[in-house]
Design goal:
The complex is a heterodimer of chains A (266) and B (244).
Chain A: H1 8-52, H2 62-84, H3 87-102, H4 108-134, H5 137-145, H6 150-180, H7 192-203, H8 206-236, E1 244-245, E2 256-257
Parallel strand pairs in A: 1-2
Chain B: E1 3-14, E2 17-28, E3 32-36, H1 43-50, E4 58-63, E5 66-67, H2 75-81, E6 82-85, H3 97-107, H4 113-126, H5 142-154, E7 160-164, H6 172-187, E8 191-195, H7 199-204, E9 208-213, E10 216-221, H8 223-228, H9 233-243
Parallel strand pairs in B: 3-8, 3-9, 6-7, 7-8
Antiparallel strand pairs in B: 1-2, 1-4, 4-5, 9-10
Classes of the chains: A mainly alpha (266), B alpha/beta (244).
Chain lengths: 266, 244
């Protein structure tokens, strides 16, 4: 049967049979870029968001205050520029700029990682800032009152709670990244969208190739969103808890042991 | 007696609003001082200034004779010696009861985990919360949370414990369990500074009562005198509202 005689479904099956290798490779590239860049975007976002919410210590001198202020201005500029321009243009700007101005030829992978991470970081910075501000100020007062430093308070008390609060937004960013890596096709990254263009260009089957590729994108994003929801539920911990006891007979019924000598009550 | 804290000419203003005007008093070892007064009289702000959660505008706070507002003092190590219990508990929401009582010991006092755990369990047992070490704060009632918060402050072995209206956010039936813990503490010789609206506690448990009004100390004396024959008109007014 020639391609001309096939119906819609047969053509889709044909695409899958002939191009399953490149589609899988494209999907894998997309996922690799999305996951790695969401991770590094979060790291950048936490660093920037943390600095942006830092207030100068009342004992610090004008030099330290000035430095913190300057850093905040630079970071705000970063966030505004990368949130305020299309990622497609950022990709072209960084990729071609690096080669033209500095003679550096970024490979496909490093270019993709840098661009998407830096872009995600700009969005995450604001998300993290919001996450930190959403934690009850009483939490940090409680920590300061037992003598914890600002840094200890942030790492042990505020950031874990902020992270939980912004998990839905991190998931959102991952899903956006899975789809938005398609703009990297402008610098020749062979990801899922690039694969779609090659297939449709070679076979002239735009509708069928688009349907197959869309289905793959949907499976990727849907699985990711389910996994992230499960992670969130895990972070919340169980809704109930076990009572601790020194009664050895009760251990088997799911109660936790604790040492009577170290302050238990019988 | 051993003087732990001495407050001299403490002033605090928020903008043009003078919340504390020239506060003077001292706290000796073993003192249980109740600070009473109507809302807005500056009681809580006074405690927050002593714990450095608010920056005092003027005056001195001497801790064993050393001025902690001087600027050279390590605020964090001072805070470990002056514990604080809040009206809104402020337990760490991301940690369970045991970790709430361990984290300060491990991170601030650098105790090893075994020792921290033993100390935490000892004090949790004292406040009757040892059974709940695995619970998260959101799974506890208000009274239970406050008892854990008291244990969290105690494990740091503070020299003074500040209570900022510890029972004001509690349902009436839970007030008793927290007050009982505080009574035991007072009996064990803990130095306490308690901002409270519980007049029975102020009268029966504390050895000194301070009445504040408009940012000033209006009356400072032993409970019997303050409650039965107050010197100032304002104190009489305030107390008469509770006795009616």
């Amino acid at each position: 049967m020639s391609i001309g005689e096939m119906n819609f479904f047969q053509r889709m099956v044909y695409i899958i049979q002939e191009y399953s290798g490149s589609l899988l490779k494209g999907a894998a590239t997309t996922m690799a870029i999305a996951i790695v860049c969401t991770f590094f975007g979060c790291v950048i976002g936490f660093a920037v968001g943390l600095l942006q919410t830092t207030e100068p210590h009342k004992g610090s001198g004008p030099l330290k205050r000035g430095l913190l202020k300057a850093v905040k201005v630079v970071l705000t500029a970063y966030v505004e520029v990368f949130r305020g321009t299309p990622m497609m243009l950022q990709a072209a700007f960084i990729f071609y700029g690096m080669s033209q101005l500095f003679g550096i030829n970024l490979g496909m992978w490093s270019a993709a990682f840098i661009i998407v991470s830096v872009n995600t970081g700009a969005y995450m910075a604001e998300t993290v800032r919001g996450g930190i501000l959403s934690v009850d100020p009483g939490q940090s007062e409680g920590a300061r009152a037992i003598g914890m430093t600002h840094f200890q308070t942030m790492v042990n008390i505020i950031l874990p709670q902020a992270l939980r609060n912004i998990m839905p937004q991190i998931g959102n960013n991952l899903i956006i990244n899975i789809k938005d890596t398609c703009v990297l096709s402008i610098i020749g990254t062979v990801e899922l969208f690039f694969t779609f263009r090659s297939i449709s260009g070679a076979l002239y089957m735009y509708f069928e190739a688009a349907t197959v590729t869309m289905a793959i994108y949907f499976i990727l994003t849907f699985v990711c969103s389910r996994i992230l929801r499960a992670v969130e539920n895990r972070m919340d911990g169980p809704a109930d808890f076990n009572l601790a006891t020194t009664d050895t007979l009760a251990f088997t019924s799911g109660m936790t042991r604790y040492d009577a000598q170290k302050g238990g009550t019988h | 007696m051993d003087e732990i804290l001495k407050i001299e000419h403490l002033v605090k203003t928020f903008g043009t609003n003078e919340v504390l005007r020239d506060i003077d008093f001292s706290v000796s070892k073993g003192d249980v001082i109740s600070i009473i007064g109507s809302s807005g009289s500056g009681k809580s702000t006074l405690l927050r200034c002593i714990n450095l959660l608010e920056d005092a505008t003027g005056g001195h706070i001497l801790f064993h004779g050393e001025d902690i507002l001087g600027g050279d003092v390590n605020e964090d190590s001072y805070r470990t010696k002056v514990g604080m219990v809040f009206q809104s508990f402020n337990l760490f929401a991301n940690l369970n009861v045991l970790d709430n009582c361990m984290i300060g010991q491990v991170k601030v006092l650098k105790r090893d985990k075994e020792e921290a755990r033993a100390t935490a369990l000892e004090y949790l047992a004292k406040v009757g919360m040892a059974q709940y070490i695995e619970a998260k704060p959101r799974q506890l009632s208000g009274g239970q949370k406050q008892r854990v918060a008291i244990a969290r402050a105690l494990v740091m072995n503070p020299e003074v414990l500040l209570f900022d209206e510890p029972t004001s956010a509690l349902d009436p039936e839970m007030v008793g369990e927290v007050l009982d813990v505080m009574k035991d503490l007072a009996a064990s010789g803990m130095t306490m500074l308690v901002v409270t609206h519980e007049m029975a506690f102020a009268r029966d448990v504390s050895n000194r009562v301070i009445f504040m009004s408009d940012g000033r100390i209006e009356e400072d004396g032993d409970p019997a005198t303050v409650f039965s024959s107050p010197k100032s008109e304002r104190t009489r007014d305030f107390l008469s509202r509770f006795n009616s």
